[in-house]
Fold this sequence. Notes:
By secondary structure, this protein is an alpha/beta fold. It has helices at about 35-50, 55-70, 85-95, 115-125, 135-140, 140-155, 175-185, 230-235, 255, 280-300, 300-320, 350-355, 380-395, and strands at about 20, 80, 105-110, 130-135, 160, 185-190, 210-215, 225-230, 325, 340, 360, 370. The protein has two domains: about 20-30 and about 300-395, Aspartate Aminotransferase, domain 1 (Alpha-Beta Complex), CATH 3.90.1150; about 40-295, 3-Layer(aba) Sandwich (Aspartate Aminotransferase, domain 2), CATH 3.40.640.10.
Amino acid sequence: MTTFTARLGDRSLFPHLEARVYLNHGGISAPSVAVQAAVNEVLDDYARRGGAAFLRWNEQRTRLKGKLGALIGVAGSDIALLPNTTRGVIDVALCFPWSPGDRVILFQGEFPANITPWQRAAATFGIELCFLPLDEWNRDVEAGLASLSRELDKGARLVAVSAVQFQTGLRMPLAEITRRAHARGAQVFVDAVQACGAVPVDAGAAHVDYLACGSHKWLMGLEGCGFVYVHPSRVAALRPNTAGWLSHEEGLRFLFEGPGHLRYDRPIKQTVDFLEGGNYNTAGLAGLEASLDLIQQLSVPAIHEHVNAYLDVLEAGLVARGFQSLRSADARYRSCTLSLLPPPGVSVVDLQRQLGDRGVACALPDGVLRFTPHWPNNAAEIPFVLDSIDQILAALPAR
Ligand SMILES: Cc1ncc(COP(=O)(O)O)c(C=O)c1O
């Protein structure tokens, strides 16, 4: 097995990437050659051995859980592997031990993945959803926290929030949110897909109850795999409403031990992996481990610092050109995302498309221009990005 070495600001592990400047890791990351090699290894193994390969990759999953646990400051045994972030939200929303009339606090402006499953839970279990506006948090995090406390005082079972907001890049104060929620008897669910891999997340230290994350953004893996963490003290209370055949204790015996073991009444596991109800995306999970190894070589705090040094320069250049930055002025609330509103009269759709045509990949979630560099990006790219913007703006009809 080849060992790959990651270096901050060096994209030589991404030799196939066509974009000259890739600034869309908050959307979908390109797989490195390390990820490609890991995926190929799985495919080669199954191609040779078929089902006999299963046990080897079962071990890989246990190892991966340990590494994911280390990433977010929890034990690997408290992590279940799932197809995506959304699946983690769905599982907790449908398995939570609701009582009719329970209140859930959500945020207006969140990515819909962290809304729809709570809406389904509301329709199914008769719970109530309360939305707090994120605008207030964007202006003043302390004011946002004060509003949250007032809402919690009315009584709530759960707060569901993203670690980093997908549109503005605001890094939410998870430890403080959790402290306030727990003090009033509420639990906290975190969608961490815009954070894990580039922004430090310590779910253990922050006493987060539930956390879900997918692999294709800042973890730089592929689409179709992710994980959920459930605090060990919360697992037993979950109702197994999304259980499947792999959720049972000793659920594999009937496949290996001869007749008489096919039963449907085996107890559901009392560990978080009861949420892994069926088979796995083995190739995707191997890719995730490979990308995680590169991230851990560099360390998340070092990546965060590297990316923010990049964003400092890019932000200054764009603000000088009339863009309005949505990045927090307070370093505590910064992630690895820089979102901006273009100068008045400039269409963000045209701008993003024309940047793409010139080889600068970025995103436009709900109308903001979003740049999301990661460890392979190098500040030497920034003059090209700014020159491209200058040329695009200069070619626009007079405003
Ligand atoms: C904050 C946030 N949550 C969830 C998702 C969706 O994640 P997944 O496709 O892994 O469910 C996205 C983006 O795609 C996102 O930005």
